[in-house]
Design brief:
The chain is an alpha/beta fold. It contains 21 helices and 14 strands. About 3% of the residues have low confidence.
């Protein structure tokens, strides 16, 4: 099945062909035939990165009447980053449709500029719940012509505290509208919305509710809490091309992990509640441009991040709830690519892992941390591969070549290679020589790691806890026998 078989307009087909899309992804295969042929309400379970934007946006674009200046559709997203990303995607999908106008509205941006744009006429609004609610309440968005209202990542919006705004928007927009709800998980509040504001919604899903993508491998390392950073460093060093997000629970932990990574020479920055919106945008742009290897973030600060090709999601500490873990690991393994979600777990966190396994029906693999030899080998051959692929700057080297050849004239090829590697990796090799393969990893079975403590014997020939756990009359008999023996 291809996009050309879905009944999309030639203009949309041309636009998505320019983007390199030919075959729809699973959620698109299920949603497009329904939404293009019948204005029904839709409740869709879809993980981040499964192509859900096109699943709801393409039908919305096709059904827009560009001869009218009325706003005909609203898409709500949890964060400004996702809002901007969805708006850009819609512009790409609709670039061959004459007169089509879309607008992104979100908090932190100049409201007056958004109001001026709305006055000119906008067919499709993409916005965050708070800003959209404000604009509707102040009558800057004319809701009378709204035909479709889409909630993207609805569970995230609810977990971020937008329940009141969502209820207000759902209650004030025309009851005749079509409502589309896309969510990665299915908490009780999502079911409440579907029952209260949707008309006999058709339910579809790509993957199971409350589960992560099948493209994501879940693995965990058992480490002592004091060794977590050392474990993170080893994982980073054994993966020279790593491009990942490290999730922490608190802003203090986020700052400390980012500081340590930065001091060890990694390209890293942090996202947490203490940075301003302009700083946040600079950090995210640097991460998208791959100027950073790592982004260290709290869950709240990382919400709505839409970055492609993330290779690793590392849980420095696990969240308390399964839904948050699902959203974390959903940052990798997107658009059909493979991803890896890693947990640095202490013995106390094993119960959380088992709970997540049970809820998501995904098995976590226990792994041991890479050895010094394995890390050094990966780094060495990664650097050699870079050298092999390097372009020789003949014009720059030419004036110095004769002197260079003279310097190494007495050495054979093998000696020169050894010198090059020693000079290039001396600091790195020295670090791992001085840090022996300590027992950073632990067994996933807590009882193996705990030394059995000898219980102190009481004066009555037995274990104290066992003695006091017995009935009163039985304790008296034991005491009498013990006294008689003495």
């Amino acid at each position: 099945m291809k996009f050309t078989d879905q009944g999309l307009s030639p203009e949309i087909i041309r636009a998505i062909t320019d983007l390199g899309f030919t075959e729809p992804m699973p959620i698109q295969k299920k949603a497009l035939p329904i939404l293009l042929n019948d204005p029904v309400d839709l409740l869709a379970i879809a993980q981040t990165g499964t192509g859900k934007t096109a699943a709801y946006a393409l039908p919305m674009i096709q059904l827009i009447d560009t001869d009218s200046k009325e706003t005909q559709g609203i898409i709500l997203t949890p964060t400004r980053e996702l809002c901007v990303q969805v708006s850009k995607d819609i512009e790409k999908f609709a670039k061959y449709i004459d007169g089509f106008r879309t607008l992104a509205v979100y908090g932190g941006a100049n409201m007056e500029q958004q109001i001026r744009a709305l006055r000119k006429g906008v067919h499709l609004i993409v916005g965050t719940p708070g800003r959209v609610h404000d604009l509707i309440r102040k009558s800057h968005i004319n809701i009378s012509g709204i035909q479709t209202l889409t909630l993207d990542e609805a569970d995230e919006m609810l977990s971020m505290g937008f329940k009141e705004e969502l209820d207000a928007i759902l209650a004030t927009t025309p009851k005749s509208r079509q409502t589309l709800l896309f969510s990665a998980t299915m908490p009780a509040d999502i079911l409440r919305i579907s029952k209260s504001y949707m008309k006999d919604p058709v339910q579809i899903q790509a993957g199971k509710p409350n589960t992560s993508s099948d493209n994501i491998q879940h693995t965990y390392y058992m480490v002592k809490h004091s060794n977590k950073y050392m474990a993170l460093k080893r994982i980073a060093d054994v993966n020279p091309n790593i491009y990942g997000i490290v999730f922490c629970r608190t802003r203090e932990e986020t700052k400390e992990v980012a500081r340590q990574l930065l001091s060890d020479g990694y390209l890293v920055d942090a996202l947490h509640g203490d940075i301003s919106q302009p700083q946040r945008e600079v950090v995210l742009n640097n991460f998208r441009n791959r100027s950073l290897n790592f982004l260290v973030a709290t869950d709240v600060a990382a919400r709505g991040i839409d970055v492609q090709d993330i290779t690793h999601v590392i849980n420095f500490t696990l969240p308390d709830d399964t839904e948050t873990y699902i959203h974390r690991c959903g940052r990798t393994g997107r658009a059909g690519k493979k991803g890896l979600s890693i947990v640095l777990a202490t013995n106390r966190e094993m119960n959380k892992i088992r709970r997540i396994e049970k809820a998501t029906r995904k098995e976590f693999t226990f792994s041991t941390l890479p050895s010094n030899r394995e890390i050094c080998k990966q780094q060495l051959f990664h650097r050699l591969e870079q050298v092999e692929k390097a372009e020789v700057a003949e014009d720059v080297l030419e004036p110095f070549l004769e002197e260079i050849y003279e310097r190494f004239a007495d050495m054979d090829k093998e000696a020169v290679i050894k010198l090059f590697i020693s000079a290039e990796f001396q600091k790195f090799f020295s670090y791992y020589q001085n840090h022996k393969d300590k027992n950073l990893s632990e067994s996933p079975f807590p009882e193996i790691n705990k030394k059995k403590k000898k219980r102190k014997k009481d004066g009555f020939g037995g274990d104290k806890r066992q003695f006091w756990s017995k009935p009163k009359e039985r304790r008296r008999k034991i005491k009498r026998k013990s006294t008689a023996r003495k």
